[in-house]
Amino acid sequence: MENTLWWIFFLASGLQFTYLMVVFGRFAFFHKRQEEIGEDLNLSGVSVIIAAKNEAAHLNDLIPLLMEQDYPIFEVLVVNDCSTDESEDLLRSLSGKYDKLKIVNIRYTPQHVTAKKYALTLGIKVSKYETILLTDADCRPVSSQWIRRMSAPIRNEGKTFALGHGSYLTLPGLLNKIIQYETLLTAIYYFSFGYWKSPFMGVGRNLCYRKDFFMEKKAFKSLWHIEGGDDDLFVNKYATATNTAIVAQPDSITISQPKTNFKDYFTQKKRHFHAGKYYRNRDKLKLGLYSLSHLVFWASAIGIVILESTWEPIALVLGLVFSRAMLQYLIIHRVRKKLEGTGKVIWTIFFDLMYMIYFWTLGTKGYLSKTVKWK
């Protein structure tokens, strides 16, 4: 029994260190971010599209910020999705102040489609420009260079997708620390695989793609029935090694309002995990192998510590646990520095264990669930 447990532990350790050093480490330690914005060869128009439902307060803050973007040709198109608050009156008032603001008001959503995909599809169809940049009403770009940064791979390099980072506002409390940790880990996953030319997802808080490609693929065809997935599933279905770029500069990110209670947070994550079961099989495999080896690593390590009666084998296990924690800390530190401009990380081992428990409980529930909702 103990010999089998040791073999399991070493196998899981090998997989964990391979992912950390090779897959994630390559992006963390070798990716060189572009510090300065070079000469823009193509200053074509960009349509910033926001699907919003009962988001009047957020839109009142966001739209003036977007109008300050340092880019010559863009529009901000807000799709007001059957809101019952004062969103429509607010948007009408703001459109009189800002010429670049366009509005689409939805009165009815067909039963056979999901609300957010329908809203985005209508917005993209009536958008003026060929480069589409998506964000949410509760997001804020951190700099005036956001549009320029995020759209550059589409405009200048001919890419179909540009994947950006969407961070969350830092607030006091345990929930916020969990959100910060989970969001950064997710970014490490999709930026690392994107850097390895194997993109598998993006986040709708900060995502750019080509309008003609979206229309060519008939919008969210085959995805209409899935609540959520307007971002990660669309990227997962069509992103390739050659048509996708990652945008990893601190002035390209957005910051969103995080959930402030566990009920709302679990509802959000349930929707995300539910979408994950529709990923391509190869993407399920590469993510599942890391998550499974993560669980087995901790379970077997704890089992060996409980079963062993001498200090030497326990010291070996603790040494590997500590080494993995230090390597993970360095990767998180470096990636956060690349993406957000700050590298302060203080929660590695504790939140690593907490995330594992959260992932396998909430993730299983979300994966098996049949019904989820956007709002």
TrEMBL record:
Keywords assigned: Glycosyltransferase, Membrane, Transferase, Transmembrane, Transmembrane helix
Keyword Translocase (UniProt): no
One Pfam family per UniProt: Glycos_transf_2
Originating species: Cyclobacterium marinum (strain ATCC 25205 / DSM 745 / LMG 13164 / NCIMB 1802)
Name the record gives this protein: Glycosyl transferase family 2
Gene Ontology MF, one: glycosyltransferase activity
Annotated transmembrane regions: 6-29, 287-307, 313-332, 344-361
UniProt domain Glycosyltransferase 2-like: residue ranges: 47-164
Similarity comment text for this entry: Belongs to the glycosyltransferase 2 family.
The keyword Glycosyltransferase is annotated on this UniProt entry: yes
